[in-house]
Amino acid sequence: MDENRVPEVSIASSCGLTMPVIGMGTATYPPADAETIKSAMLEAIKAGYRHFDTAFVYGSEQPLGEAIAEALNIGLIKSRDELFITSKLWCTFAEQDLVIPAIKMSLKNLQLEYLDLYLIHWPLKFSKEVSRFPVPKEEVFLIDTKSVWSAMEECQLLGLTKAIGVSNFSSKRLEDILSFAKIPPAVNQVEMNPFWQQKELNQLCKAKGIHVSAHSPLGGSVGAKLGDNNRILDCDVLKEIAAAKGKTTAQIALRWVYEQGASVITKSFNKDRMKQNLNIFDWLLSREELDKISHLPQRKSTSLRLIIETTEELEAEL
User: Fold this and answer.
1) What confidence score (pLDDT) does residue 3 get?
2) Which residue intervals of 48-170 are DSSP H helices?
3) Which residues pair with 214 in a beta bridge?
4) 291 in Cβ contact with 243 (< 8 Å)
5) What is the overall mean pLDDT for the chain?
6) How far apart are CA 236 and CA 282, in angstroms?
7) Which residue from 74, 153, 162, 263 has the fewest beta carbons nearer than 10 Å?
8) CB atoms within 10 A of CB 78
9) pTM, whole model, 2 decimals?
10) Mode of pairing for the β-strands spanning 211-215 and 187-191
11) Are the C-beta atoms of 171 and 200 separated by less than 8 Å?
């Protein structure tokens, strides 16, 4: 598939920047080795992906950077500017004076001069380096959003990233950041799929001009740890729609996300599925099909409790 067939969306707060609506994710569980990630990213570029989603905590910044360098070297792409690269501020660095050193570390890992999008990974601050998951509750705090966001704005003003945003932020956390932001978040990347439809959050983001990017559109690798990885792919409603349309169940789920106005971060290291996941733009879901999907039972697959030892008080604040 030619990459020109992947639509792009304008990101409101960032001076005309556009983002391909399908990104290739790089988070793996269990973690993949660097050579596997690098090889898969090169295959993704060959398949037509131009948007890549990484994060410090994934351990994928360096192999992605190596893949980009090789793609330039062998002529798969002519310029780094052809790519859209997202990375994320990890919770260990979520305080004002650590943000700029953190993005510079990510840029060094990626061998890049700038990011296209830099996100606060979670609205959480860890008091020290993570030695185990879930992180002990005595090491977990809410971030000081105002001071951290001020440093994120500085990253954009310095040209270290073209746009800034957040990830895993609730409506409550978004309203808070919008109350003082000089540069509002361009993107909120959250779990979104037919089993976790995020209707209220999506409506708020649309009203505020914040683009929603969907991670875990097929349930996610954290869900796989719970034995939950096939919940979307095994869904009878989605399978029936797929059979009727001559599509894969994954394509139905990805198309559903796209029709909600969101972009999609999908992940596959399988060449055929990489290509299938891009082929969601020349057909539509019918009203009846959308209605069936809207009535699916809702349950989140990425559990916060796998990442941190949480408390009722902390969950209420998130």
Assistant:
1) 45
2) 61-74, 96-110, 145-157
3) 190, 264
4) no
5) 93
6) 24
7) 74
8) 9
9) 0.95
10) parallel
11) yes
